[in-house]
Amino acid sequence: MHIKCKIVQSLQPDDGPRRASFATAILRRIDEDNDCLKRVCFSDEAHFHTSGVVNRCNVRIWGSENPPVAFKNQQGSPKVNVWCGIIHNKVIGPFFFNEPIISANV
User: Fold this and answer.
1) Which ranges of the chain does DSSP label H, i.e. alpha helix?
2) CB–CB of 27/37 below 8 Å?
3) Which of 34, 46, 74, 80 holds its CA 20 to 30 A away from the CA of 96?
4) Is the C-alpha dihedral spanning 10, 12, 17, 23 positive or negative?
5) pLDDT for position 71
6) Does the pLDDT value for residue 27 go beyond 70?
7) Are 72 and 27 in contact, with CB atoms under 8 Å apart?
8) Cβ of 45: how many Cβ atoms within 10 Å?
9) Radius of gyration of the chain (CA)
10) CA 22, CA 4: separation in Å to the nearest integer?
11) Phi/psi at 86 (nearest 5 deg)?
12) 97: left (phi over 0), alpha (psi -120 to 50) or beta
């Protein structure tokens, strides 16, 4: 048996044209300035429970039967937020935040 969570976001009617327009604009910029992507920062953030609890959606359990495992839900447990970015050939961060929300005002 393979247990796998999948989080999805519904597509909206204008998503396809907006994505195509963005792709066309990026390709045009690359044609005009071959180094333009060197100035783009790709980033991501994640949160980690300080108690060691792991996000079940990132865990795979393989077996022929249901595992005799119970997961405790620890709502409100302390977390650490981590942000990191990549621009051209440089890594920015990681930066660690104790705040529950990372925003420009932090």
Assistant:
1) 15-32
2) no
3) 74
4) negative
5) 58
6) yes
7) no
8) 14
9) 20
10) 32
11) -130, 125
12) beta
Which residues pair with residue 91 across a beta bridge? 86
Tell me the pLDDT tens digit for each residue of 37-66: 899 999 988 878 777 766 655 556 666 676
Helix (H, G, I), strand (E, B) or coil at 32: helix
Please, how many CA atoms are within 13 Å of residue 18, restricted to the half-sphere of its CB? Answer: 5
The token duo for 7 is 């989080």
Burial pattern 79-91, b for ≥16 Cβ within 10 A else e, equals: bebbeeeeeeeee
> CA 48, 59, 5, 62: dihedral to nearest 10 degrees?
-170
Asked whether the beta carbons of 60 and 2 are under 8 A apart, the reply is yes
Q: In the numeric block, which tokens belong to residue 80?
A: 């650490």
What pLDDT is attached to residue 23? 95
